[in-house]
Task: structure prediction
Amino acid sequence: MADFPSIPFEEAVDALRRRGTNLFASDHWAEVWQEQHQAGFTVARSAGFDILKDIHAELMKAMENGTTFTDFKRNLVPILQKKGWWGKTIVTDPESGDKKTVQLGSIRRLQTIFDVNMRVSFAQGRWEQQQSVKEDFPYLRYEGILDSRIRPLHRSWHGTILPMDHPWWKTHYPPNGWHCRCDAVAVSEDDLERNGWQVTDVPAEGAPVTWVNPATGEVMEVPAGIDPGWAYNPGNTDQAAHLAKVAMDKLVDLPPHIGAAAVAELAFAFPQVERELSEWIEGVAAQAQAGEFRAMGARRVVGALDDDVLNFLAGRGVAPATAAVTVGDKDLFHALRTAKVEPLPVSVWKRLPSLLAAPEAVFWDLQDPGLVYVLNEPEGMGKIVVLIDYSARIGRQRTVVNTVRTGRLVTSLEEFGVKNRYERVEKGPV
Result:
């Protein structure tokens, strides 16, 4: 029997509906990470099967009508069986070639899908409600179900009362793991006085757990007591920013000229893309400033080669596999650590999508093949070096992308007038 409310409310229904506008086929649950689950909907091992719309549609029926898991599985199982997404199958690892048996659809998996999506949707909706009454109910109280099934640390968090805007809720707003039944309840000053409660300190907890993402190989630090992939607030994410990031990520898989056209259409969303990018770049820059240069393999799509660049490259026998331009944490460390002159300000790195879309000039480096984008910013003129067809790991697999390798400040365009070194990419007719 479910431990979440069976009566739906509008905000929870809307949360599940929004996630259904972005369907992610995936091979492993860890491929789609944390906040992406807030902005989209995925099912592990769904790649290659046309099932995501079917599962989401049945979840929507259950959420809107307040129906049970029994009804959900009764309607869905025949559809999944007909499409072949049922039982066990043998898959081949794309890198090692090893074969293994994996579970596709089953009653147990459907139970997990139902439970997770209902809990996350209710959490998203609840957070939206709490934000609307924050002036009168400025605190949240962590509440666990104190029976034998509760996790020990979740038990210790029970009764924690902190301001709604406290950073602790960014990682500890429930649910905090698979089948976690905890809740966060809005609390007013009157509630504190009536119940004899008081605002507490942040709960003491153990050291973070080092965890290796089985889908990407990325090494992560997971807060103690929280299952990997659950250390985020389902409601307190910048939805527009994550949706924009998701759209940018899709550029990698598009044919080059289609990707070039797509990024032009996405220009309106660059402010949202840059909000998400900024937080990540600030973290990488803070590591570099502290002298910690261990790259985790994280990567962001920050733009695309436009048609003029693609046509220029074609004329020189260069045919990129994709138009997508990416930057990885390793690339940023390289730029921040090894620049021979003043490196680009972090503020410039944060605005890469906008700047790469409208550069001062673009050159082709004849001696060290690569594109050089010259950017003109209030902080000064800078250059960004983009390598074509760079092998990078995205998700479980290695793929070929174009990547920003380094960047630094320059004094003027005269630097690129060196004979037999740079060739300018001319803009075509508008």
Observations:
- The radius of gyration is 24 Å.
